[in-house]
Amino acid sequence: MRRQNERIIKERQRIKKKKPKFRAEESWRYKRVKENWRKARGIDSKMRRKVKGWPRSPSIGYRGPKDARYLHPSGFVEVRVYNADDLEDIDPKTHAIRIAHTVGAKKRIEISARAEEKGLRILNPLRREEVVEEEEGEEVEEAAEHEEGEKGEEGS
Predict the structure, then answer these.
(1) Hey, CA dihedral for 90, 86, 131, 147, is it positive or negative?
(2) DSSP string covering 24-46, please?
């Protein structure tokens, strides 16, 4: 399966090299028009009418191979994960997980631990700083709880 995906990804890269860089109409002429693609809509627009000599517009013919769509460059199918329970139906041979950006540090650590147990690849793993910050945060919370406990005993 992985070898086949590698072949498909190479094919996608070969096709992508041939694809032109699509740019917004007249972006090369005016500073105020950014290069980001915008569909040409004017009634006299040369790009909309696909006049010879004008840059190409995106069309269905430039689409990549069907098998390669939605594949990560590593050859795995990306699966977005929001919590540790989402890891249940994921196949480690064909899927790789991407932890959603809305997931906080505590849950991210839990997901990472469960994914490691299952042998899943994480496309956006924890950075060392995040792990250190989380551990420091837990130590601070424990110290605060300990101090509150001591204050409660003194008041009795």
Answers:
(1) negative
(2) -TTTTT-TTS-SS------TT-T
Cβ distance 120 to 108 under 8 Å? no
Alpha helices in the chain (DSSP H): 2-18, 105-118, 128-155
Per-residue model confidence as pLDDT tens for the chain (156 residues): 667 788 888 999 999 899 999 999 999 999 999 999 999 999 999 999 999 999 999 999 999 888 888 888 888 999 999 999 999 999 999 999 999 999 999 999 999 999 999 999 999 998 776 666 666 666 666 666 666 666 665 555
Looking up tokens 């792990």 gives 131
Query: Edge-to-edge strand order for the sheet containing 77-81?
Result: 77-81, 95-99, 121-122
Distance, in Å, from the CA atom of 21 to the CA atom of 76, rounded to the nearest integer, reads 27
Flag whether 56 is in a domain. no
Residue 49 lies in a domain: no
Cα gap 154→48, rounded to integer Å: 80
pTM, whole model, 2 decimals?
Answer: 0.64
Whether 127 maps to a domain, the answer reads yes
